[in-house]
Amino acid sequence: MGLLQYRIPGEETFFAKGEWELKTLASLVEGDFVLTTFNKEEVYVFNEEDGEKNYSFHPEEPYAVSEQEYYAGLSAFKSEFEVRGIAKAIYSRIHKVEKSEDFKLEDAFNRLCEKYPNAFVYLISGENTGTWMGATPETLVSSKKNAFYTMSLAGTKKTKELSWTQKEIEEQAFVTDFILEKLRKAEVSNLQSDGPKDIFTGAVYHLKTDITFSTPTENIKQLVEVLHPTPAVCGVPTDKALDLIAKHEEHSRGFYAGVIGRVGQERCDLFVNLRCMQVFENSLGLYVGGGITKDSVVEAEYQETINKAQTLLRVLV
């Protein structure tokens, strides 16, 4: 029997046993908790059932590149920007660590909740999905009745005193402009933005712009299609960045950078599945990535993935 456990910021932890059923975005109904892969080709909905809790671990672990393989792969990735007309794209890798003997998923979940009070923290397991856990700071879209909220989130630095680089400022502007343009095309009303400003997520700082708008609640599934994938997890232009990612990344992203959260008419809380990991029998596979532009330095980008991995590891091990 699979499980779903999550904590929305400011709320109590939810826990239920059940199974994950393969569905489509179009079939989502009031009250569904949804989990999608990055490419949204797999959309799972959680169905509560009675039974004994059991963790399911996928037997095959994805390939994790070495540091030198990352350098070579990112160099090849970046070399295609000009010919493809790409302004920015996300390049990710898997950071793999062995489980410690005393590692317990329930304790890890509780530590993430304590360390990251402003993140959406979750733990899921099922035969179809395997076991995943994360603490994502990024809201895809949330709503209370017809009042909607989303954000653009990009850039990473360790301390508040450090200045943002031009690359990071441009990266965050790409994300903001993309979201605003998509929402204008979706003909939402009362569209407003506030930012960028620094936000501390418990281990690192990001640049964030808050975006609010109004639209009928029945448009939520259309908004998911419109907003995801964002430049923060894909790139600009979207289609070209998707093709480049598929060509150069050595792993399937799985649920990394997909959509996760609950759907409802009165209230909706959907998040981008960042800062996450897949749990295996004896190891943890942390998914970490960075926004790449023509000015990116491969060594600095690798260090950024190390910093992001530490966001989880300092809590887990």
Describe this structure in words.
This protein has 317 residues and is an alpha+beta fold. The chain has one domain (2-316): Anthranilate synthase. The chain has helices at 67-79, 81-84, 105-115, 166-185, 220-227, 238-248, 298-316, and strands spanning 2-7, 14-23, 33-36, 43-48, 88-98, 120-126, 130-136, 139-144, 147-157, 189-200, 205-214, 235-236, 259-262, 267-272, 276-279, 283-292. Strands 10-11-9-8-14-13-3-4-2-1-6-7-15-16-5-12 form a 16-stranded antiparallel β-sheet. A hairpin with a 2-residue loop joins strand 8 and strand 9 (147-157). The mean pLDDT is 92.
Brief overview:
This protein is of the alpha+beta class and 317 residues long. 27% of the residues lie in helices and 37% in strands. It is globular and about 55 Å long.
The CATH homologous superfamily is termed Anthranilate synthase
Q: What structural category arises from helix and sheet content?
A: alpha+beta
- Poorly predicted regions are none
CATH architect. name: 4-Layer Sandwich
- Rounded to the nearest angstrom, the distance between the terminal CA atoms is 27 Å
Per the CATH scheme, the topology name is: Anthranilate synthase
Helix content: 25-40%
Shape: globular
Radius of gyration: 19 Å
Give the percentage of residues in beta strands: 35-45%
- Spatial sequence of strands, sheet with the most strands: 10-11-9-8-14-13-3-4-2-1-6-7-15-16-5-12
Number of strands: 16
Helices and strands, in N-to-C order? EEEEHHEHEEEEHEEHEHEEEEH
Number of domains: 1
CATH class wording: Alpha Beta
Largest sheet: 16 strands, antiparallel
Number of helices: 7
Domain Chorismate-utilising enzyme C-terminal: 67-308
Protein name: Isochorismate synthase
InterPro entries: ADC_synthase (IPR005801), Chorismate_C (IPR015890)
Organism: Lishizhenia tianjinensis
